Amino acid sequence: MIQEVLYRLNVEDFERFNDVGGDVVHVSVLPLCPLKWFYRLKYPDLARAQQYSGYMILGKLVHFGLQRLLLELQEAGLLDFRVLGVEVDLEKTINIERNGLPAIIHVKGRADILAERDGEKLVVEIKSAKGDYGIPAQHHLEQLRIYMNLAGVSKGLLIYITPDRIAEYPVDKPLTDFELQKLVQEFFERKAPRYDWECSSYCPFNVLCPYKKTNSYRRWQ
Length: 221
Ligand code: SF4
Description:
binds iron/sulfur cluster, alpha/beta
């Protein structure tokens, strides 16, 4: 019965996230292969099947648990910083060129935590991973820097919760407006993938994508 609740919540979350028009892009997908976003809109069933991954739900529970824990510790006066909000909606409008014509794109995102320390606001991005190999990942740093731009703050903190270690990475360079516009422009030009590893089993669309970089080796006899 709990299993059912968790899967249902995850799928409902996915449906909300998927309910967008062609002029909206979410921060969480901007640093990744753009084709995945467009395939997601075209083949929602393939994307939906991925929502039944236990690993994905584990990540959500880590987010939820840490956010609630910090709010409770704050309530008890046990934090030396202030949590201003969790799951904070952020949005910015970006002008790009699409098919040779000017276009307006709405970049939307939800920061895990907005906090304040020593009178300065900062965005906290929570990541969970199976291990600490390759952290901090380039696309996670980029994602946090986008949130910092959208929130108009110059400080950020990327925190990893992994079985190997829990590590914090302070970030003090938000993406500039120019960098963000370039990123959105490239996203809509569908330059794919951004990283070769994205085409592995992480991508539910690699069963139909002609741009898949890492082919599987399989013997038929
Ligand atoms: S297979 Fe690779 S290029 Fe194709 S959508 Fe997936 S990540 Fe992008």
